[in-house]
Write a structure and sequence with these properties.
162 residues, alpha+beta, 6-stranded mixed β-sheet
Length: 162
């Protein structure tokens, strides 16, 4: 089945679900991690358009469980900002974001290469775009797997075109 036909079928199914009322919002007292059932956001072949993908979590969502609470702001290609609270017991940023299903990517020689953030792909090899990792507005000089975390810290994932 070619890619365009598959995208068309998926789009029609999504519209049908909206019209029939098959989707529902998660109750506010539940975490948004329940919205991703298989633990993975998506793979490279799942998106027809890198930047036009629909976000998985809504702005303000609380993701994950744990005693450490991080604030993570995601800045999209169009400048749209969404802020999430990530609760975790992980000791590094990569594990916290992966466990909350906010990011996905590839493991490489330098750790996690983040390709997807909240369902939106930025892949330098494909489109010369990447996710810039920042802490309190300052560019991090470590990878997400090498970045230790502590309660109350603030991070940014910024879509950056090469």
């Amino acid at each position: 089945m070619n890619r365009k036909l598959l995208v068309l079928i998926c789009s029609l199914f999504a519209v049908l679900c909206l019209v029939c009322g098959c989707t529902q919002e998660a109750p506010q007292n539940e975490t948004a991690t329940d919205a991703v059932s298989d633990g993975n956001l998506m793979s490279d072949g799942d998106l027809a358009s890198d930047v036009d993908a629909e976000a998985i979590f809504e702005d303000g969502a609380v993701l994950g469980e744990g005693s450490i609470a991080l604030t993570v702001k995601v800045v999209g290609a169009d400048g749209t900002e969404n802020t999430f609270t990530v609760n975790t017991d992980a000791d590094n940023l990569a594990d916290a974001l992966l466990n909350a299903n906010l990011v996905d990517g590839d493991d490489g020689a330098y750790g996690l290469y983040i390709k997807f953030v909240n369902g939106v792909r930025a892949d330098y090899d494909l489109d010369k775009a990447y996710w810039s990792l920042q802490k309190n507005g300052e560019l991090l000089m470590t990878g997400s797997h090498e970045t230790p975390i502590a309660d109350g810290e603030q991070y940014e994932l910024v879509y950056t075109a090469g």
